[in-house]
Structures
1.
Amino acid sequence: MAEKEIMFNEAMEQLEEIVRQLEQGDVPLEQALTLYQKGMELSKVCHDKLQNAEKQLVTMMNDGKEMPVDIEKDGTSK
């Protein structure tokens, strides 16, 4: 059975909690490794969701004949 898809906000909250626990430094090694692995999985989920959202926005902008803005450059249209 496939795991229920986690929402972005839930993944971020879980990831923040894992980081908090690991930063405290009092987690046993085995648990730290498990937390780290779960954190990496959550990080990938968040990254993938952000990339998907960006693609959807670009598609919507292109469908509406808007010119995408290059925020990396200077905030002007490409």
2.
Amino acid sequence: MNTITPTPKDGTYSYRAPLSGAQMLARFEGGKLAYLARNGEAQPLTPLAALHVAHELSFLEDVAFMPLARPIGKAAGCRLHRLMARAGIPSGEHYAFAARALGRPVASLAALSPVEARRVWRDLCAYAPRLTA
């Protein structure tokens, strides 16, 4: 019997790995695995990892799911870029700054969720206390 594991809905999943008991955090975006962490440490995003996570999610109980939040959009992302520039962060380092604040890769500030944008904003305020919106 060859069954295909369905792709999980887009969103963030938190669960304990069945064999190791490790705390897992997986995020699916556009039907693909976009982020995976084991005990807080980022894991490689391979096709095998995506299949493994999808399989685990299909049969595990006690999986916490949070749907993806609507992104902040271009206007708010642009404001965040301007604030980073005012704080003295070179434009080539804006995504790296946001990635450090969030603990995951960031390819677009406009694609951040409101919660993620606030976390980046808090880190930016700690970096440059004189900064105001």
3.
Amino acid sequence: MEILVASAVGVLTAAGVYLILRLRAFPVILGISFLSYAVNVFLFSTGRIAVNMPPVLQPYGDASYTDPLPQALVLTAIVISFGMTAVLVMVALGAFLESADDKIDMTDDHDTTTQPAEQSE
């Protein structure tokens, strides 16, 4: 079970990093989402992977339980990442509607140099 969770975290992280390095807005947003999913699975796995165990101690019986703190952290992280993904999608949509292109470009392709006005003497 641990190897499955570890490989899932690795695949999600690799896919997230690959998509973040793309030059379009939508794959970057998906990459950030994949990275947040990888962090959520990692946080969830820190609470010991125990199948069919209660999240709290039982008053009588063995002391096997699942730690509830990582579950609460993951639930909070899911809500926050969903909200941030919605904000990023709206910002990317606004940028796409403004420029008619979703390419993330660090260089300026447009000629922004202005010609000096001719002086009349």
